[in-house]
Write a structure and sequence with these properties.
Blueprint: H1 10-24, H2 28-36, H3 39-51, E1 58-62, H4 68-88, H5 97-103, E2 114-119, H6 122-135, E3 141-145, E4 158-164, H7 173-183, E5 184-195, H8 201-223, H9 226-238, H10 242-251, E6 255-262, E7 267-273
Parallel strand pairs: 1-2, 1-4, 2-3, 4-5
Antiparallel strand pairs: 5-7, 6-7
Helix pairs in contact: 1-9, 8-9
Bound molecules: S-adenosylmethionine (SAM).
Residues 17, 21, 62-65, 68-69, 119-121, 124, 147-149, 164-166, 169-170 line the site of S-adenosylmethionine (SAM).
Length: 275
Amino acid sequence: THFGFETVPEAEKAKRVYKVFENVAEKYDIMNDAMSLGIHRLWKDMLLHVMHPQPGARLLDVAGGTGDISFRFLDYVYHQQERQKRRALGSSQTLSWQDISEKYPAEDAPHESNSVVCDINKEMLKVGKQRADSMGITSGLSWVVGDAEELPFDDDQFDIYTIAFGIRNVTHIDQALQEAFRVLKPGGRFMCLEFSKVTNPVLARLYDAYSFQVIPVLGEVIAGDWKSYQYLVESIRNFPDQEEFKGMIEDAGFCSVQYFNFTGGVVALHSGFKL
Ligand code: SAM
């Protein structure tokens, strides 16, 4: 009720969300660091730590925006692969990286991992692609415009589905969850990072003050865009809490649904399996 965004009719929401991310795309990465004091990096690292993907895994990163999750995924899998090669070669200490890559050239990798970044907003993807180019990432990554509620992929395609700070922007969450279920392979894992409910009352008051008083000001100062960041805060408040969201994931058919709170519940990681 602070800003009245929740009175926006359903049909309007998608349009507003599109405008918000179109406006902030260029400044998105800088704003993330500024607003979270860099902590979003740790939350994303934690997601990868829990995911622990193995070489060969295929990831679909929905609402993937500028690619943060996919970059981490490819990096993690790469290092995992190098560790496994070293182990396979036995004497891990005496071999140089060069020896390893000569004996096991990348093309020989039995299953190349890859990641698909899917986002409804082409401006966000554009910034992501530029980042990939500047990092020299040439393979294992693709960028697809698509709606979480109606994914442009066949059934049973992916080992892991991620959606990080994206699902609260989706108009019909249940629809997005059903789509996640559909495109995952049997045995595949759904993982969602999202702002959630802070449990500690003292932290909750601090967090409220920060969200409503600092965030829109930062939005105005850095991106010249107060309204988009008002929307951000409001959308966080309107999102279901940990237990309610867990129930929604179960309703979509996922098993062994669990969640982990990060930073006292500022963010929660939900996970579930398609069996
Ligand atoms: N996952 C990235 C990250 O963690 O940095 C980006 C998160 S950003 C806060 C939210 C993203 O969700 C935006 O890029 C936006 O375009 C996208 N989005 C919003 N609604 C969507 C939908 N219905 N389908 C797919 N993506 C959507």
